[in-house]
From TrEMBL:
This is RagB/SusD family nutrient uptake outer membrane protein. Its main location: membrane. Residues 106-227 form the SusD-like N-terminal domain. Keywords: Cell outer membrane, Membrane, Signal. InterPro entries: SusD-like_N, SusD_RagB_dom, TPR-like_helical_dom_sf. It is found in: Cell outer membrane. Residues 297-598 form the RagB/SusD domain. It comes from termite gut metagenome. GO terms for cellular component: cell outer membrane.
Amino acid sequence: MKNILLNKLMLLFALPVVLFMACNDEFLDQGSLSDIYEKDVYADSLKTLGVINNLYGGLNLSFNPSRFGNQCLEAACDEAEPSTDEAKFPVIIAKGAANPSNADKGIWTSYYRNVRQVNIFLANKDIIPVTSQTLELWEAHARFLKAWYSFIMLKHYGGFPLIGDKVYAEDEAIDVPRNTYAECVKYIQDELDWATSRLPLNNSVTGETADRFKATKGTTLAVKSRLLLYAASPLANGDYDGNDPDHYVSFGNSDKKRWEDAYLAAKAVIDLGLYSLYQGSSPFFYNLFQQNGDCSEHILNQWIPQNTNNNMYYETLANPPSRWTRYQSTSSSCFPLQELVDAFPMKNGLSIDDPTSDYPGIGDNMYNNRDPRLTASIHYNGALRYYIGSGDKPVRIYTGAIPASSVAEETSASRDGIYQAGATKTGYYRYKGLRNDVIGSGAELYRPQILIRYAEILLNAAEAANEYYGPTDEIYTWLRAVRQRAEITRDEDGDEKNLYGVKDNMTYEEMKIFIRNERRIELAFEEHRFWDVRRWKIAPIVSNGEVHGMEITRAVDGSFSYRVITIRKHVFNPEMYYWPIPMSEMTKSPALKQNQGYVSKE
C-alpha cells in the first residue's frame, strides 16, 4: 500500500508540469523541461519544503509492511513464515534460491531516485528564497536523508557506487564502479556528522504533521550508532573469509577499535539525556507501540497521517481473521515461528532451557508466567485479545473439535485455527504494534511507525561495550533497565542477585549470547533479526535448517494435545550475507561487479 502523503505530494508537484505542457508545447524545444520545472520548484520555498517532506515520506523504505507484497522480511530468517506466495523474495531467500535474475530491486532503484532528488535540491539551494539559517537546516535534513538511504543500501549490498552530489538525468545510466565498504561507511558517517552539527537538539513541532517527525541531533547520532555497530561486527570487520578481494563487503582486516567506535557512538546518544525507556502505563511494552509520537523512547518515526488506510495496515495484515478490520478478514502477512516463541524467557527472566526457570514444558501452561513481551508480541492460543462486542476473549488457534455454540467468539477457531483457510501456518499470529481500538470499527487513527527507539541504542551500547571491554557495570545497568521495563520480576529469590534474570558475573561469551537473545526478543518484528544474524555470521546455523510451529488439537472432551511441527527447511548459502545486485542494474552499468558467489539464472 503506498503512502498517501507521498501520493499527494507527487500529484501536487506533477500538476504544474501538466499545465505547463498543455499550454506551451512549442516551448519544449527551447530548453530542458526538467530544468525549467526545477527552477520553478526551488524558487518557491513552499514547494521546496514539499520536496523535503516527500523524501521523508519514504523513510520506511526498508521496513515497510507492504514490502514484498505484504510478505515480510522476517520470513527470510528464523522469525516468521509468510502467509502465501512462494514467489516473493523473502521466501526465495529462505529457500537459498536468490540470484541476480530474481533479485528484488526496490532498494537499489529507490536509493538512486531518492539521492537524485536530494542532489537536485543541493544543486538549486542558492535560489531558494529562505534565510541562510533555514537553508542550512533544510540542507541538514537533506544530507541526513541521503545518509539514511545510503545505510539501507550498505546493509543490503555492501559497498555501492557513491555519486556524491552529482545530478544524473532521470534516464541516465550510472555507470560507476562500486566503492569499498570502508569508503561507504566513511561517506555515510561524514553526512551524518554534517547534519548532526546543524540539526536542533529537539523538534519543537507538535501536532499531527510531517514536521513533527523530522530528524534531530539525536536521530543522526542514533543512525550513526547503528552504522558503526554494523561496521564493527564480524561480517564487515574482517576479510570476509578471504572472499572479498575488492573489499566491497568488508574492511579487509579486523580491528577491535571499531567496537570502541560503535560503543562511543551509542554512548553519545545515551549521554544526550533526551531519551528514556517508556514506562507510562502498564503493560509498558505493549503500550510503548500505542504512543502517538510524544514518547521519550521514540528516536526516529515514519509519519503515517490520520485517515489513511496505512493506519490499519498492521491490523489488516497481522491479526487473526476473527479480529477483523473493515479492509479484510484473513491474515496475509507473516506468522511467528516456534523458534522465536522459545526465545522468550519466563517472567523471572530465566531461559525456558534453564532447569531452575519453572518452565512446565510443552502443554496447557507453556505460555503462563512468560516474559510479558511474549504476550505483547505474539497471539498464541488462549491469549486474551479484544473481540468486537465481547471485550477480551481467548484467541483460539487450535484445530480439531470446535465447540458447538451460538456465541461467535467461542467458535472462532473455525476462522483462526491452524490449517483454516486464510489462517496461521505456525499456530501463532503477530501482535506487536497492533491496536485493539481499530478492530471491527474501521477507525483510522493517527500513528507513527517506530524506526529507531532508545532500547535499541542501549542494546547497541551493551553489545559494543562487551566486545571491546568485556562485561562492565554499564552493560548490566542497561540490560536490567530493558528487562525492568519489560516487567520481568526484579528479584524472585530476594537475594538481590541476578536481577531481572540478568545473571551476575557473566563471562564475555555468556554476555554475548545474552545480549544477542535480548535483541531478538526486544526488537522482534522491527527489521533487526534478518540483519543481526548476518552481521554476527550465525546465519549458517540459525537460517539453515528446519523451522517450526505449534499444532494444538482440541479433543471432543475439551482437552488439548500439542505437537511441534516442521514448517519448512531454510537454506543459507555462503553468498547470502548480502543481496545480489539485480541483473537489470548490472546490464545497465558494466562498471559494476556482482557480489561474490552470485550467478545469474535466466
